[in-house]
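Sequence and structure are no longer studied apart. As an example, we show below a sequence and the tokens encoding its fold:
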Amino acid sequence: MCTETNYNPTSLSLLERARSGDDTAWELISTIYAPMVYRWVSRYSLQSTDTTDILQNIFQTVYRKLDDFQHDQRCGSFRSWLKSITHSRVMDFFRARQKQGQAAGGTDAWQQLQSQPEEASNPQELREELAEIYHRALQILEQDFSDNVVKAFLRFEIDNVPASEVADELGMTRDAVYAAKKRVLKRLREELSGLL
């Protein structure tokens, strides 16, 4: 599911548009990644207002540092960079609370955070999160495709249902399922170039 393609100079990716100051592109990146970051922060059992504040702080940092991000051709490197920023902002939150003498989230949450590596090496978690990113990106781009093309892509590429079963479910040929996958992946990779 995660393969690199050459950058298409005729279509600027979300990342390139966001770096050039396109607010719409920045909002789309936030829309795609915010639920995943929220889930990461929520693991620390904080009050909802604290979680929301940390989430805003994370995306402010990402916005300020977006020009510093360099895609290193590893699958999920933007996700890793984002997770590193998340870890740092959550650590900052707990440090600030300790200085104030408050135990927001409790000592257990602080110990959990300090013992946790910045980037989990769980390949299943990475695959699930990349599938989640594809789902949200596809919701934004779905007007570019017919309903059947979107359904075929999701069933075949994301749900790992064999092409012949997807074809039967949707009244398509197997070749049409493969073509749907190819079209959608090409468009997602163009739009998410540098983010995946």
Summary: The chain is about 70% helix and 0% strand.
